[in-house]
Amino acid sequence: MKVTWVLPGGEEVVADVQTGVNLMEAAQAHNIAGVQGECGGSLSCATCHVHVDGDWLAKAGEKGDFEEAMLDMADGEVTDASRLSCQIEASDDLDGIRLIVPV
């Protein structure tokens, strides 16, 4: 599947991601600046914070309560579109998803 990350300056990075990989790991594999994932995806930090493009919000799934609480620690503006990318798993349904890396 394809994922597009939109960086703060407007540059877009498009990459192929294998089904089952979480999008934080995919961002790290493709050196996406601004998506650190310091906790390794264990849901104990908010350094993989992204905004899911509005067209993809429903398909990306609901935030869990713990994810919502962790987003309170996120850098950058937290919006209704905010997600921790470690909590979004690549799937055929998400082929073409766009993630905006917040400033």
From TrEMBL:
One of its GO terms (molecular function) is metal ion binding. Residues 1-103 form the 2Fe-2S ferredoxin-type domain. Transmembrane segments: none annotated. Its cofactor is [2Fe-2S] cluster. One of its GO terms (biological process) is P450-containing electron transport chain. CDD domains: fer2. InterPro entries: 2Fe-2S_ferredoxin-like_sf, 2Fe-2S_ferredoxin-type, Adrenodoxin-like, Adrenodoxin_Fe-S_BS, Beta-grasp_dom_sf. Keywords: 2Fe-2S, Iron, Iron-sulfur, Metal-binding. It comes from the Bacteria. It holds the Pfam family Fer2. Gene3D superfamilies: 3.10.20.30. PANTHER family: FERREDOXIN-2, MITOCHONDRIAL, FERREDOXIN/ADRENODOXIN. Belongs to the adrenodoxin/putidaredoxin family. This is 2Fe-2S iron-sulfur cluster binding domain-containing protein.
